[in-house]
Amino acid sequence: xxxxxxxxxxxxxxxxxxxxxxxxxxxxxxxxxxxxxxxxxxxxxxxxxxxxxxxxxxxxxxxxxxxxxxxxxxxxxxxxxxxxxxxxxxxxxxxxxxxxxxxxxxxxxxxxxxxxxxxxxxxxxxxxxxxxxxxxxxxxxxxxxxxxxxxxxxxxxxxxxxxxxxxxxxxxxxxxxxxxxxxxxxxxxxxxxxxxxxxxxxxxxxxxxxxxxxxxxxxxxxxxxxxxxxxxxxxxxxxxxxxxxxxxxxxxxxxxxxxxxxxxxxxxxxxxxxxxxxxxxxxxxxxxxxxxxxxxxxxxxxxxxxxxxxxxxxxxxxxxxxxxxxxxxxxxxxxxxxxxxxxxxxxxxxxxxxxxxxxxxxxxxxxxxxxxxxxxxxxxxxxxxxxxxxxxxxxxxxxxxxxxxxxxxxxxxxxxxxxxxxxxxxxxxxxxxxxxxxxxxxxxxxxx
Amino acid sequence: xxxxxxxxxxxxxxxxxxxxxxxxxxxxxxxxxxxxxxxxxxxxxxxxxxxxxxxxxxxxxxxxxxxxxxxxxxxxxxxxxxxxxxxxxxxxxxxxxxxxxxxxxxxxxxxxxxxxxxxxxxxxxxxxxxxxxxxxxxxxxxxxxxxxxxxxxxxxxxxxxxxxxxxxxxxxxxxxxxxxxxxxxxxxxxxxxxxxxxxxxxxxxxxxxxxxxxxxxxxxxxxxxxxxxxxxxxxxxxxxxxxxxxxxxxxxxxxxxxxxxxxxxxxxxxxxxxxxxxxxxxxxxxxxxxxxxxxxxxxxxxxxxxxxxxxxxxxxxxxxxxxxxxxxxxxxxxxxxxxxxxxxxxxxxxxxxxxxxxxxxxxxxxxxxxxxxxxxxxxxxxxxxxxxxxxxxxxxxxxxxxxxxxxxxxxxxxxxxxxxxxxxxxxxxxxxxxxxxxxxxxxxxxxx
Lengths: 448, 448
Fold this sequence. Notes:
Number of domains of chain A: 2
CATH topology of the largest domain in chain A: BirA Bifunctional Protein, domain 2
Oligomer: homodimer
Number of strands of chain A: 18
Distance between the termini of chain A: 57 Å
């Protein structure tokens, strides 16, 4: 044999994951799972249902919007297979037929169109899962990252807005992240601000520049607009001047959107959430048709989440008149923020009792005692080999297991077991007969 | 615009997922999540830790075994991007650089090699997640499916075997699937049975034929061996004759494996699990080096899970002398079996209280009441629009929400609310002042 990487060849295969991808150590993985559970519980408490959609989609679905949005350019495409691949290579045709989803919204739109007849109306749904973007990896930006979406499909403003937004903000509040602020705007308002002498494409360009306000500052945005369009459009100037202003500045422009923004703001503020109108908010996706939002934090550039109304997205799948609103929490940024603030809780999944193995002959009794404790709902770990006792205790110590149950030959003969409390090093002898007494005593020891 | 699939063009994009992939309705998704939680809890109770590994790997990692195993041929490959893709197309070189994992074991081996210094020794780990295989889709065989793996890396037989196997069997037992049986064999025993006049490749071929015993029957296997090798090897005949036999038949052949198989069987049987030696068990993966197993059920062809010892797998990542054992529950087959037996529990995630919206003006009070109930840990759903009351009640009915809290203008004026118990249609009026009394009453109603 001796091929590269074969066991016989002994050449090494790199141990790192692909660039931009991550492996999580047990403590990180447990904390992430616990966080997902907590977000799920909050979404459920607001009446949202979990669904699960394949992570691979037909490329035609992912590219279905036909608009060539930024995210579409970042699709990880999956190579065709077999004869189809051969034909594609020979003809110079499309080499891929599938792609990894780049968000959770487009697959949801397909799902809702598919199951139209089977879903509640309106359909309140949440998804927590990974998405993939072939972005240039950099600090804090990964090619695989989690999103936590809530959506209401089949509901007009503003009920869906208030329901989704309060579920999302509730997550931040539940972690004591009270500095979080909701920024709101409306695509219809942005559309109404278009200068008459600009066409739609030029106005879209102007909004792309405006969207960079955080990074470029006002001067930078104005310079880019001069370079691109030869001027700063009046609509953009009005937005930039009103940045700190109130909704009333824009009241005459598009009454429907200023009215719904006003109602949403009032309801969110009455519920105790920090919320403001931000006319400079644009958001990247081209499928938004109304309300758009971002969740921001004073200590972080960019956003902790965002979303908007997408009343026409289902049309690409043949759905008509299906208004929808949804938003997402950026899971990775939330993890980062909670870590920085020391608020990322450790999950309680570590074993409570540890059995070292002192002698191969005692494997049977140790195994049976461990099983009996597990039936009492305790988490119990057994060392698999009769290794050096020092190593076995180090293992228990490293894993922070609070109780070590030591069964030696002498103890077993006397139907006794030694239980060591690792916190203070104290030891006690417990009788193994009758067994129920031992189990109850261990249960008592392990209860908080 | 008017491109295919664009919103303006109005052409439809198909609503089905790619062939071999699935979307799950809310009830299915909730049942799957609840099942994952339950398996996680059992794995944790046995001292296993969760980890999380990227689902994409470098192709070189997935192909690292160099052996061209069956699963390697089924990798979904991810197309290179940008200049690299252009160069690959021009030069006729490899078009892909990444691939979706086809199992959870190979990524785990890379992970353990990478974090060697940071992981407990031995490392007890579980993973529950999707894997992908570009297999021909057929009934019950999907291209994306979940596996539930437990592994112990850094432990010699037989402790790791007993620990993993009891965790896996515990899952089946906890669902009352007592017909489940553990089948055990050892690759070293199979190797020792090789006829002297056959080389390794021929013997491997003979075992591949033996592996089809379930499908082909004894006659079919013998016919295939005649066709492939011109004879039925003596070793295979010995296995086929011993099928119903005991371990002692093989005792002289390879003492180490028959001894460890004997100990594992004794311990598993003493713990009340159904377990037997099965000399015809082969398993597909080429990285197994010792104990191999499958979990089988009398009503199902094929297996519900399986695995084995892979003491040399870490060597391809530069690890040396890292004995390891692990196994997997086939999640999809478990779901199927539980469904058939009516044992797939419904998760308790549906809302407990539903607020219809009778009037836009009451959105504020309804929203506040819902929030207050959520603070009491109740799951509360609010209808987002002031739609026809009939439709709103149908929604509550379809979702099987047990209590409907009706706040009309009249009720609100009198600080009252009507609560309807959907099970018997009975209604009661509750006072909204003082609010804590209302909350406590609702809490009491919703408690089981």
